[in-house]
């Protein structure tokens, strides 16, 4: 009895049935933290750490010198690189003190906060009597949000946050990432 040799088409069809989904992957590319008034607040840590080729994380620590913080406003904008970074989808300002009492009222801010909430001490309303810490936000957490919860098109992105604490511009954080 003779058997026919499998053709390239048959192998392709077998692979298509085995591969369920090809999904994009996210990678941190850069992190920048800028303190405006170092007598008020200073970034004591602003690191993008690469453990190996696939595992990276971001850590940010802000040392606050004028406590307590009773007013906190955060402006965040998402930018996509076209010919330079251009606004993409979101740019809004959130009252950080009121946000924790009514997170469902602002689903966009909640979406971005959910990426860092398990790795930060930003889990309560004002006043803040301590330094602000976001420790080891892994690329896996961001990847899950950006590819599964609310998928984005492939490309290079920057999430920029500007912080107003006690009505003073305290600083800015820019997180750069690629989705491919």
UniProtKB/TrEMBL annotation:
Domain of life: Eukaryota
UniProt keywords, alphabetically: Signal
Keyword Signal: yes
One of the Pfam families matching this protein, by short name: DUF1091
Signal sequence extent: 1-24
InterPro entries: DUF1091
Record protein name field: MD-2-related lipid-recognition domain-containing protein
Organism of provenance: Drosophila erecta (Fruit fly)
